[in-house]
Amino acid sequence: AQRVTQPEKLLSVFKGAPVELKCNYSYSGSPELFWYVQYSRQRLQLLLRHISRESIKGFTADLNKGETSFHLKKPFAQEEDSAMYYCALRMNSGYSTLTFGKGTMLLVSP
Amino acid sequence: SAVISQKPSRDICQRGTSLTIQCQVDSQVTMMFWYRQQPGQSLTLIATANQGSEATYESGFVIDKFPISRPNLTFSTLTVSNMSPEDSSIYLCSPSSRQKSNQPQHFGDGTRLSIL
User: Fold this and answer.
1) Which helix (H) or strand (E) segment is A51 a member of?
2) Which of B3, B36, B38, B42 is the mutation pick for testing A, counting most A CBs within 10 A?
3) How far apart (Å, rounded) are the C-alpha atoms in residues B50 and B63?
4) Are A89 and A26 in contact (CB under 8 A)?
5) Residues of chain B contacting A34 with CB distance shorter than 8 Å
6) Nearest-Cα residue of chain A relative to residue B34
7) B35-69 pLDDT, tens per residue?
8) pLDDT tens digit string along B84-109?
9) Identity of the residue in A43, A90, A102 whose CB atom sits nearest the CB atom of B42
10) Are the beta carbons of A69 and A22 closer than 8 angstroms?
């Protein structure tokens, strides 16, 4: 069965510091990986997906199949980045639901 | 992405009662996924609902506790039956279309349930 692991429950950094939120997965096939973000009192929303290979709000994530990782990175954290971040996997069968990691709370202090 | 509306947004319920959560989408979708997010936890899939057939439940979830309806391609309901404090969670719906199966999943605002 597929699994998503986010080893850090909480990551606290200062404004301007680099951020890396870790995500590792286990799945025997070829997965799709996503990062979702949930700001305080807001709905869960898609931040980025690996097949898009784009940068959203300064965040990037690269799928490393060798290390089965999809870490989320940002070179300079902003206070407004403080939120809950969830890594999620979808089996690349074209029609399956998401498996979520437990989430990492990012706190960016001034 | 589709506009997803969930009602109610929150409710406080008495132990032993039941509550039905509604999910409306502004376009036709093949599947409706229902998730639960317990306090401080990640999202867990409850069941997948197709129109015209019984929902498929994940391990640990049963139809008697979480009956689901899917009367048409734009609407679904999830009922939380005989509630206990352990059912206090956020419940979310997420539509998926076979024609757009390569699109990412989006979520409603969720229904925050508190059971006293």
Assistant:
1) none
2) B42
3) 14
4) no
5) 104
6) A97
7) 999 988 889 999 999 877 789 999 999 999 999 99
8) 999 999 999 999 876 666 778 889 89
9) A102
10) yes
